[in-house]
Design brief:
Layout (H helix, E strand, L loop, with lengths): L7 H11 L6 E2 L2 H15 L3 E4 L25 E7 L6 E9 L2 E8 L4 E8 L11 E2 L15 H19 L170
Antiparallel strand pairs: 1-7, 2-3, 3-4, 4-5, 5-6
Amino acid sequence: MANDILDPAALLRQLPDLLPQSSKVLISAHDAISVLVHAAFTALGFRLVATDDMSPARPHPNNVLPDDWNTKGLVDRTFRYRHEQSSLEFLIKVIKLGQRTLINAIAVESDKSASLDISTNDFTSPSFYPHDAAQPDAPPLVHGFISSNRITDFICQLKLKVIQKLIPGLRKEGYTEESEDSSTNVGPSVPRSVPVPVHPRPATPPIDFPYGPGSHIPPQNPLEIGRRDLEPFGGNPFAPPPLFPPHGGDGMFVGPEHPIFGPRGNRSNDLRGPWGGDGYLPPMGAPRGARFDPIVPSPGPLNRFPPRFGRGTSRGRSGEPDNDEFMPPGAGDMFM
């Protein structure tokens, strides 16, 4: 297997040879990242044809940069390339944006674009520059990029986000394409935060159909259906007991024993919850801290008021459902 042509050691060894003979000084971290990008494209067989947008294309022997390569723009370094495996011209711009570096690339004739945005200080040591690669006692250039591992991270992202977008399927000995799973993230990884619910939500109750299996409305004898409608005031105390036992209800009047208010008694299958009915509300039906009139005709955990005992009621039964004919407590307080 051939050696990796984008290995950090190989790129750093090639980098000084790509600088102009008249000056091998890297003024800033921005220049260092720009030359590192140029070294990577050179290793992959891209031919440098210009270092600005307007100049006509011309060959640059060994891809050596011209003397004015880093003086044509204040915040951007421009490289134009061609490649033998493509008929397109590729325009690369390395732009300084405050503490970040943006690498924009486009295949000019096809409008196929790509970009990579990094934090400059994640991959370079600003205090290392300016750096003169021509000095015999110059410190190793790898220190200007923090470490070899950071160079590897940067090259992986450059391949994934830029090179593979411009010319996918590039064939070069010692070059392999990156995948999303195997690539290394740029910069420190940020743990994903799992949103915590504001308050625990009760389990979703099963769908309940009236008179169906598990319904809180008890089944009745078909012959008894409609009989209570003939007795508006409930049961007749002088009438003989019915053939089938009653299931509650107050005739034509909706009272506390009506099936719509759920089961009564000590049934083992009592499905009443703290709010009445099937015991559940829609999500956010009663937000935390809201004044809530429970939808239950009997006292429950959310009913802060004791049961009333009015006409026709006894101590064994609540006076609910409440008609709510009075204002809620504190409603007349203008400072509430």
